[in-house]
Structures are given as structure tokens and as C-alpha cells.
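Comment thread on ticket #2218

A.B. wrote:
> Attaching the input chain for the structure job we discussed in standup.
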Amino acid sequence: MPTSSPPFTLGIEEEYLLVDPVTRNLAVDPPDALFNDCKEALGSQVSHEFLRSQIEIGTTVCKTVPEARRELAGLRRTIIDIAAKYDLAPIAASTHPFSEWQKQVHTDDERYNVIAHDMQVVVRRLMICGMHVHAGTGDDDDLRIDLMNQAAYFLPHLLALSTSSPFWEGEDTGLMSYRLSVFNEMPRTGLPDRFDSHAEFDRHVQALVDANLIQDATKLWWDLRPSGRFPTLEVRICDACTTLDDTVAIAALYVCIMRMLWRLKTKNQRWRTYAPMLVNENRWRAQRYGLDEGLVDFGKGELTACADLVEELIELTAEDADALGCTENLAHLRTIVARGTSAHRQRALYTQGIDAKKSKQDSLNDVVDFLISETAVGTS
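C.D. wrote:
> Ran it. Output below, let me know if you need it in another format.
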């Protein structure tokens, strides 16, 4: 059994959509100078995404959750300030309320050109953004695989807390995370497979590499994966959180879950693993309902309110939050449950506009204005 704790460092990556604050539409072809200015200010912490209307940032390896929050706030603020110089603004949301994917332009880069050729309309529809969290798990590759097998159970819980994509091309989809529907069309997505060891994982990746289907493990776009670049487990299921503190709270919960599972392992215990068909039911419920209609507690065999599940998670990981110095961040999960995710607030604002006899477009514009302002909250 492991005796020394892995580092449980964390890194957070966020993708933003760039919008015109006047038209509220996506900036289909933002000036190259904008990205160049971001690159000069942030170096390797900023990068292009598939669409030119997107931009991605990433923290460095952070030893604590408060450190990650400070760094993420600075990154968001830098993108906001530089975009404003070009009369644009970033929004941290997984879909734009009304822009059309057919009008978007992909980044002219060899990597993205290859993806565009290989995946055709599937990738051209990728007008979506996500939030990824890396949990540093040390040099034990087998531990990383073991934690991945167990942590898959919690992926729907993380998605339910993060939803921010209820709209697509001007329509209320009825889903809290329509982003996942779009991303599910891509190959090698969804729940991770299970492996008995890292060697087994490597053999499966190598089979795809040898067949010239992928270049390396970075082309596995699972909801949770061993990073192909870092000694981390990377969770990828979450929508981009509009509110900075929501991002940080969910990142804190994820790292605390990793530490909790490791802690169980030191006591010859482990979280029960369930068949993907069962976890996928919760994944769908989180995608469709978010926090509203509960998830299945498979230990009890019954639907359980998400508020109760969140309380249980806070309790289960209390020791880990204390050890990682993020008890206050974890407590913010209760705020998310009480006031709703970005998806709840977007839909409520839109409905408020319609009820006030505003036009559909004006109501959608109100949603964009909310996303612009909320993305900046806490970044000063």
C-alpha cells in the first residue's frame, strides 16, 4: 500500500468564446494582433483553439487551490483587458446563445487543418468550450489508472455542478449541457475505459498508434484521462463555468475526490466501480437536468437529490479539503446548488425577457450581456 501522499497539485484550463459586445455575436475572425498581445502577456499560458472565435488559457502547476484561483483570476483579467482593446469580450460559457456554427472559421494551423480534414462536419460543429482540471498524482502510473477507474463514478456529479450550455443557435435545447451532445459526436469521447494497469493502457494506445489512427494518447478525448503530457489525471467532462468561484470550487472538489480515493487505498479500501451503462445513466441525467432532478445513488439503488449528494461529497472529502487548504472553496458548492449554475441563470434571464414581452433576440442578447459581465466577476 502507498505510504507517502502524491502531490495532488492542480492545473486548470479554460476555453473562452470571443464576442462582439455590440452585436453580441461571436467574433468569427478576430484580429491576429489580439492573440499576439495575449501571447506576449501570457506566453505559453494562452493558446489557440480549433475555432478562431475561441481562446484557451491554462494555469501553471499550482500547489494549492487558492493559488490556482489567484492565477486563474489574473489570466481571465488579462484576456478581458486585451480583448477590450479590440472591442471584443470573452465569455466563459460552453455554447453561445445564438451564433451559428456554419459561419465559424477554424484556426489555420497544421494540427487543426488535419483535424478538420479527418473529422469534417463533426469537428466543424465544435462551437463549444470546456473546463479541464489536472490533478497531479505523482510518478506512480498504476496509481493514476486505479484512480481513474474509481473516479469515473463521480463524473456526472462534476458535470451537473458546471452546466453552462442550455442554448444552441438561438434555441433553448431543453438540456443543461448541450455541449456534451456536440462533443459526443467526436471519436474517443465519453467515459474512460477501464484498465488493470498503466501497461495495459499503453498497449491499447499503442494499438491505435501502430494502425496510424492517432499520434499519441492526447487524441483520447475521454471525460477523464491520464494526461499525455503531464503526470496527471485530467477531468474533461465539465462545462466552462461562467463564474470564477464555480470553476475553483469544482476543481477543488475534483482534487479532493482524488485524494479521498487515494486515502481509501492506503486503508486497503476502494470506491466500488459500477458498469459504464449505469454511470452513463447519471451522465445523461446531468447533461439533461443538471442539478434539478437528482442522480442515481447506486449504493442505495435510488434517485437522490443533487443537494444531498453534494452534501455527502463535502462530508466525504472534508479531511482532504482540510489537508489541501480548500475547505472554503468546497463550501461554495452549496452556493452553486442554491442559486443554480450558469445554465440555470441563463435560462431564467431569457425567460424573464420573454415574459416582459421582449423579442427573442433581445432576450438572447441579455443572456450574452450577463455572460460578459459574469465572466469578469472576481478577476480584479
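A.B. wrote:
> Thanks. Noting for the ticket: The mean pLDDT is 96.
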